[in-house]
Amino acid sequence: MIKAFHSSGDMVADRRADYARRLAEAGDFSSAAELIEQALELVPVWTAGWDFLGLYCEKAGDIAGAISAWRHLEALDDAGIFGAQLKLAAHGAASAGDSTAVGYVEALFDQYAPRFERALVQSLGYRVPERLDGFIGEVMAEKSIAAFAEAIDLGCGTGLMGERLRSKVSFLEGVDLSAAMIAETGRKGIYDRLAKAELVRFLNDYGTGVDLITAADVFIYCGVLPPVLAAAARVMRPGALLAFSLEAHDGPEPQFLRPSLRYAHAPEPTRQAIADAGLDILRFERAALRQDRGAPIEGLLIVAQKPPAAPVVLDLAGETVIADMEPEAIN
């Protein structure tokens, strides 16, 4: 995944891998796979080499060869940095599991951090933070919310969502798996606090009383939604908002793993998962999230709310008084 893992430690094997890379760039994936196989004969425990072999076999249409390579990769990669299980699952050769592939996602975004914004915004037309922020603004107007006291931006990345939230929030916390992403956004001074953590574990360890949680293109790496939605709902105060995006599909299953190693979620199971978490849907819209290989990626933009606290009826000296128990933190 990252440059330090690319060398095999053997000069001859590295030279063959470099030739293989050039062949792959020219579109000759079968020849690239043959050269990587030769390199792996010299260095059979080269983890990244098995990843290259799987990729080149996949591109060449040799799915059986790719699966074989990724099984070798899985056996060597104890930390899961190369995402072998996800790659096998995307071809029906393994289960993707119910939780985030932490090692893979962390390594992916550590590598991606320096060019993240340029690639995503300028090259792929990414507009999820802008669209979610627009929905949040609409809900604020409808609910007469002037500002949020405390908010968490899950998967904050380089702060694209945080930049838009900053003027709406008194205390803004950013959370991300990637130390490189945290370092990038830390230089911008957007957040009051930053944490490097897996998001469900972070939420489970958090207190309560959060007024807003955002997750722009984050749950697409989580797979099963109920655990993360339940964790988010627990920390939200009554009346708080959860705004997030998902990639969408129209099949019968709640979610499936795409070849991109991102999950796509079906609308109706997603609606049910939100309801099961005790949240009310305020916005639920289909939208193009960004471009991928020249085609739009369809997704869902969602804003949900934890139901406001019910008023308490008091009987004072024989008179009925309705006490407004709405939280003061959301103004």
From TrEMBL:
Cite the GO molecular-function annotations of the record: methyltransferase activity
Domain (Methyltransferase type) ranges? 152-242
Entry annotated with the keyword Transferase: yes
Say yes or no: keyword Methyltransferase present.
yes
- Signal peptide span: none
SUPFAM superfamilies per UniProt = S-adenosyl-L-methionine-dependent methyltransferases (SSF53335), TPR-like (SSF48452)
Q: Keyword annotations for this protein? A: Methyltransferase, Transferase
Q: Gene3D superfamilies from the xrefs?
A: Tetratricopeptide repeat domain, Vaccinia Virus protein VP39
Question: What GO biological process terms does the UniProt entry carry, in alphabetical order?
Answer: methylation
Task: Indicate what this protein is called per its UniProt record.
Answer: Methyltransferase
Q: What is the lineage of its organism?
A: Bacteria, Pseudomonadati, Pseudomonadota, Alphaproteobacteria, Hyphomicrobiales
